[in-house]
Specification:
The structure is a homodimer.
Chain A lengths: L4 E6 L5 H10 L5 E5 L11 H16 L3 E6 L2 H14 L4 E2 L2 H11 L4 E6 L1 H6 L1 H10 L6 E6 L3 H6 L6 H16 L4 E5 L7 H8 L4 E4 H15 L12 E5 L3 H12 L5 E4 L2 H5 L4
Helix pairs in contact in A: 1-10, 2-3, 4-6, 4-10, 8-9
């Protein structure tokens, strides 16, 4: 019987949308989640800094008996996935490639939009991922747009708020003008305001929710490596945060509803001392 | 001739509003500014974390020959000023007490509003400061309101934007209903959207811009300790940031216009290793 954990890390609470989808498909797996709430957000920081933090986060998860690591953060995935994979012995899964693949599947007119944090958009990771998937087909166009206010709006609970709708109109109108038929939600917070985004961008545009796609890809990977957990009991979800577990608890309710999770605080010094 | 520096620290760029006012009143002083851009923002983090970071920031400034330290960050001032003062040999100046004092001077109906980050508002520092200033006069009322979206709106450059106006209406209407006649801008970013705030709260309400008051208080303190710089040349402004100096440079233009500053990157490891 394999009883190792699935490791997930994110800069804060956003990755809980990914965790939620994973628990739906894999209810019997034990999960260890690390949210780096002492240094959140990553999306506005430099590539060097995001890389450094991601290595520490992954190393922390490795010290918790994980068999696979999901980088449930677009900024960290776009910056650190490849470099981490070169240095770790467990398989890794980021959110970029699965999202890009789904977008290519959905898009008929080959015009794909991507919204995300400043770091994700400036890395052009989704554009590169789409282009490497479609290979010689140069007719694919990817339009990216940073939406830095969506995260604070979501975390402040302004989910169905008129202002969130107006902000979405401001951000999404350039993408609408480009005639995209598919829009990648390139930030783990965005599924929480999916309805608003859909209303503004229009029903004719398919939204790609990375969290759903990543969960499906995780199932495939666990099967491929033959490391699915075969226990019959419900999986345990253990969360670690580097700051303010009370706030994490409040936010977790917004993201997960009544799903039972354990929350522990871990010192930032300990995280910084981790090496892979 | 005294040639020691004035030290200023903030979680990021916000403290530049304070720096700007200081350079207006003290153009010949040399200034060392530290912005902890690798861990920005402080306002959403726990008291323990803000305290830890503030000690490291102050220690870093002390290693740069400073004669006085200005905590140009409301979250850090409200959390760390007293504890830092107990442990440092140089005088310290926070933004809370000067702001509270000015509000007490301005207010005629004794109803004072305070807007700031979550950390500042939850610390009730302004309320406590006002009450300790007015002593036995129990008729003073202080109404606090956290405005977490103002910082991302400002940093995203949405200064005169309709959405910023709408957000301000949402945040400020409860304070307006209370009939305040004075409003403390309890976050160093807010002076940038002062016009919008004034328009929404109404001309009959006096705004207290801490950055202006702190600069005046700094002059008083330097004179009191007899450590004013008597050099004739224009002062040098040297900024250190723990991440992304390019972004700091862009933001500095928004805050300072064409004022000449030097910007250096310093590693977070070095900051973390500092002790007072």
């Amino acid at each position: 019987m394999i009883s190792k954990n699935i490791g997930i890390f994110d800069s804060g609470v956003g990755g809980l949308t990914v965790l939620r989808e994973i628990t739906k498909l894999l209810p019997n797996e034990d999960i260890v989640y690390f949210g780096d709430t002492a240094r959140v957000p990553y999306g506005s920081k430099s590539r060097e800094r995001i890389l450094e933090y991601s290595f520490q986060d992954a190393a922390f998860l490795l010290s918790h008996n994980v068999k696979i690591i999901v980088i449930a953060c677009n900024s960290a995935s776009s910056t650190a996935l490849q470099k981490l994979q070169d240095n770790l012995s467990v398989p890794l899964l980021g959110v970029i490639e699965p999202g890009a693949l789904e977008a290519v599947r959905f898009s008929k007119n080959k015009k794909v939009g991507v919204i995300g944090t400043k770091a994700t958009v400036e890395s052009h990771s989704y554009t590169n991922a789409v282009h490497s998937l479609v290979g010689n087909d140069t007719s694919y166009e990817v339009f990216e747009k940073a939406c830095p206010l969506f995260v604070p709006l979501t975390e402040d609970g302004w989910i169905d708020h008129t202002i969130t709708h107006l902000v979405a109109e401001e951000y999404l109108s350039p993408l609408k003008e480009k005639g995209i038929d598919t829009l990648i939600l390139g930030c783990t917070h965005y599924p929480l305001i999916k309805k608003t985004i859909q209303r503004v961008i229009g029903d004719e545009v398919s939204l790609v929710d990375s969290s759903v796609v990543v969960a499906r890809e995780l199932v495939r990977l666990l099967k491929f490596h033959d490391i699915l957990n075969d226990q019959r009991r419900k999986g345990r979800i253990e969360c670690f945060v580097s700051d303010d577990p009370d706030n994490f608890f409040t936010m977790a309710k917004l993201f997960l509803g009544d799903t039972k999770i354990d929350i522990n605080e871990v010192s930032l010094d300990l995280i910084i001392s981790q090496t892979v």
